[in-house]
Specification:
Chain lengths: ~375, ~270
Amino acid sequence: MPKKKASKERVLSGVHFMLGNYATVEGAISAGCNYFAGYPITPANEISERMSQRLPQVGGKFVQGEDELCSVFSLAGAALAGGKVMTATASAGYNYMQEGLGYCYAIEAPMVIVDVQRTRGDNFASQADVYQMRYGASGDYEAIVVCPSSVQELYDYTIWAFNLAEEYRNPVIVMSETTIALMRERLDIPTADKIELYDRRYTKKTPDEYHPFEALANQCPEAAPIGEGYHTIYSLNPHDEYGNIDWDPIVFDNLYKRVTGKITENADKICRTESYMMDDADYAIVTYGSEFRPSIDAVETARKEGIKLGVLKLCNVWPVPENAICEVAGNVKKIFSVEMNLGKYVREIERASKNKCEVVSVTKNRGFVHTTDEIMTEIRKGVL
Amino acid sequence: MADIKINPRRKYLRPEKLPHFFCSGCGCGQVLNYYTQALEELDMDPEKMVHIGGVGCTARIPVYIKTDMLHGVHGRTLAWATGIKMMKPDLPVVIFAGDGDLVSIGGNHMIQAARRNLDVTVVMVDNMNFAMTGGQVAPTTPEESVTMTTPYGSAEPRFDTCRLAIAAGATHVERWTTADRVQCKDAMKRALQHKGFSLIEIVSQCPTHYGRYALGTGDPQKVIDWIKDHTYKLTTADSISEEEKSGKLPCGEFYRVSRPIYQGTTVMSGKEDK
Ligand SMILES: Cc1ncc(C[n+]2csc(CCOP(=O)(O)OP(=O)(O)O)c2C)c(N)n1
């Protein structure tokens, strides 16, 4: 994978007090994003607005399209034309992007999609779309979804998302949330030489030697520039390694196993988790996104009360960090799955726990993150 | 042994894809033929271009061209093209779209791309129905036509796609029929050389569906004759009475003007090349 450092002119190194949505933009600019298409929706608007200002400054292109379908399909075109591309939307807009996402998974187009999750019709906080992040499009595919919990992580994870997209030639979703997107916090932007970037692998083969969708079972194919003689068909339809549209059962099988395999077989390389006070923990909260914030406070309170509680923070929800969750399940008496919906991702946690411990679902869908007290109430009940 | 002559324009095609999948008598093959003639006369290499088809019979046309192509999603051709043109403004992009693809599901993308004057060529094959799905009514179906979803005749008026495109801001708009061999080819040549949004509508015969259901014939020649009877040329429009024109589509070069092309929604260095 060709690695390089971020370019100096793009990185606003220094300490900032910055809005989460702006931090997302700066992460993208640092990562080399040169195409953004968006459609207005709160609470993602500040991303489009700042992009419209920043991208032309660094030689990129900004498009406000007619709808989210324009956003996502123009991203596909721009990505095939060599761009590092991003769009941002919020739940209702992400619905519309599913058709385009299906295409992008199929032709293996690298791109970053920021979904600032919100409640239906207004901008209250929610994690109710955690399954849609992964399962919205038709057909077989695997998604990569990263879930920041702070303004700093919005910056860091957006860069990570671009790197994952380039490495696996897959759309990568940044699951943002109203909470952190509209929050101002300290943001430390490192110097450009500290930011490592990956770029997709371009083929060195001639058009005659090049097979556009040929790759090992757990890898993505090499890319080729468009309009330079590689005459590739980028079709949603099942295609063989030559790019020929074909409904042969073997073609189906090879294609779908490879596009899913390149993610599932590399899940350990992709997945990241962080542990807090887990070394001696009897109980663990497993959580993601902004719900990490009250969870870490709950650990402090619990420890004062003599409850040995720790937190496993999932930095990405898809692919599921199965091994990390399973390991925790083997070491504690109970897992508390804390999330801002009526209990969705808890199913993944239960599955990954392999019955090694009980999993308690701590849920809330009232437009606000859990308070520490609310979490503690469930913990106290659970440790009785 | 007789000399086997190979069509010189076969070099533009993917031989492994032939024979094509169009029904016999379908207009899509003619459109492909006229298009490769246009390429040849302009000495343009499809390998140095990008072609786009959405979903539908028409969308299959570029699958036979040896070129980089995007395919397989219904109606989003102009959204794809927008991204490509923003990254590679000098790369020629040509879209083949059915009437359903362009003005039904993709209607808003078409209107907005025309408004922005996106620098692409759109060839719309207007076969007056949704062909690939089996002959349902389309926004371009003539009024009162019987189709698979209008058993009592279509109660909806039809779109005049060319007028729509001009009103939206397209800078080059022409309509011809598959019977207009030379005109189709020349129109495509003009479109390929035009800087800005070109729409070439080609009214085409679908003997399998529109022919059989709406016109009561699966004979391609009879469908072409019907199309000829239901269109007229702009050049002779003055000599035809308004009564005779009613319900018929005009054909010709409607509009060709120069206007700055789309380079993004906000551009720092002002107007660059026109
Ligand atoms: C999102 C979506 N909706 C519907 C379809 C089914 N479909 C396949 S082709 C087609 C339209 C065909 O009509 P047209 O675009 O006019 O092209 P033609 O086949 O007539 O050339 C439709 C609706 C689809 N593939 N995708």
